[in-house]
């Protein structure tokens, strides 16, 4: 059965025939990682990626150096058993990788090895075409990772800014022209981020949001870290920075949640109470709960229920207790 010789196949054959064109030393696992990262860009299936990684891992390290050819010499039967597939499927995977210019079959002539001092019957699948593109594939993979990072940073920046803008719109002293500017930008922010949105769309939008947030921060002040909708002007005499304030709030919340957990209150319940009722009210309720738990003559059957009762009644004294819980 004759194989169709595509342009990619011919290029792969030419690369495989020029052993000297390979980089001095190819990191085989970095190559496998790059192929996996570029799976969609190279139009590869998941099984093709798994096959390529298996081939890289099981090709001798010495074959990846300059002047040698990395040939994966496993039989299709062995590969099929390892991948839990049949031999026909493995054959299709190899043919697909050949047509995509990443490997070539080495079923025929012998090939020179080790500077011409030895000969090796190169039967199997040669990874030389992909190895010759090692630097290119690694650079493309790094660029793809960097693009994903920038995409996520832009997404987070947009929706963090959106929370700030929501708070600005709820102010009573906002000017109509400022509100119109904010609303115009809010209309451009998608309600739900779509994966198909490109970085070229997101980064300009993130820059617009950040620019408007910076201008509004100068006008209204830094947003409170406790609520995205609570906008206030920070006094000039206040020494701590926004980052210090955020770290302080986070530390206090973590301490309260830890105290609640020691008293038998689930973390989720404690965090919800802090968010709904505030830190001070939560602390007072915890003090009342701890005082009640120390009383041996009146055991608390349900710490969570008693804690919620204290929150609902806003206990200001640890001595105020419920008769039955």
Automatic annotation (TrEMBL):
Domain of life: Bacteria
Residue ranges annotated for the Plasmid replication protein C N-terminal domain, each copy included: 3-156
InterPro entries: RepC_N (IPR005090)
Name assigned to this protein: Plasmid replication protein C N-terminal domain-containing protein
